[in-house]
Amino acid sequence: MLNKIVIYTDGGSRGNPGPAGIGVWIETLSKKYGECIGIATNNVAEYAALIFGLKKLKQLLGKDKTRQYEIECRLDSELVVKQLNHEYKLKEEYIQKNFIEIWNLTLDFKAVKFYHIRREKNTVADALVNQALDGQAKQGGLF
Predict the structure, then answer these.
(1) pTM for the whole structure
(2) What is the DSSP letter of 114?
(3) What's the alpha-carbon Rg for the chain, to the nearest Å?
(4) Whole-number Å distance between alpha carbons of 33 and 122
(5) Which of 16, 42, 135, 141 gets the most CB atoms within 10 Å of its CB?
(6) Three-class SS of residue 141?
(7) If 0-12 CB within 10 Å is exposed, 13-18 middle and 19+ buried, where does residue 127 land?
(8) Of all helices (H) and strands (E), which one includes residue 25?
(9) How far is CA 13 from CA 34, 62, 109, 135, in A?
């Protein structure tokens, strides 16, 4: 029996760099998360969302059960997906560090696959990013 979990992640910044947020929708478990991450670029936010999502899954499933699950990660960042799937080189040091952190997190699961999806298919995670950033703006936070 294959246990598969589908997760959608998104990250964005208002300005590049600028106030940034992440959105994670673990569709299979009906869990949604959005939060601000400070000042960052779009790419940093995209990676931060995926890292957050994989860590959250590990926490929700428990370390003993993670090896039973195949994780399907759906992102609208073609760049990040191609970097994670070894199609693009990792030139910047911060991308290399994020890649290594994600790679180490993938070792806890049976399998982790990364898929690029159109932005229109990532509306839930995108909305979570914007809700987090809008909430921060209302509180007089990062803007």
Answers:
(1) 0.93
(2) E
(3) 15
(4) 14
(5) 42
(6) coil
(7) middle
(8) strand 18-26
(9) 13, 31, 30, 14
- Angle of the 123-138 helix axis to the 42-61 helix axis, nearest 10: 110
Q: What is the DSSP letter of 71?
A: E
Residue type, 140: G
Range of the domain at 89: 6-138
Other beta carbons within 10 Å of 51: 18
- What is the rounded CA–CA span in Å between residue 104 and residue 72? 16
Q: Cβ distance 131 to 91 under 8 Å?
A: no
Q: What is the pLDDT along the chain (143 residues), one digit of tens a residue?
A: 469 999 999 999 999 899 999 999 999 999 999 999 999 999 999 999 999 999 999 999 998 899 999 999 999 999 999 999 999 999 899 999 999 999 999 999 999 999 999 999 999 999 999 999 998 766 655 44
Q: Is residue 60 part of a domain?
A: yes
CATH of the domain at 87: 3.30.420.10
SS3 percent helix, strand, coil of the chain, rounded to 5, is 45, 30, 25
Asked whether residue 1 is domain-assigned, the answer is no
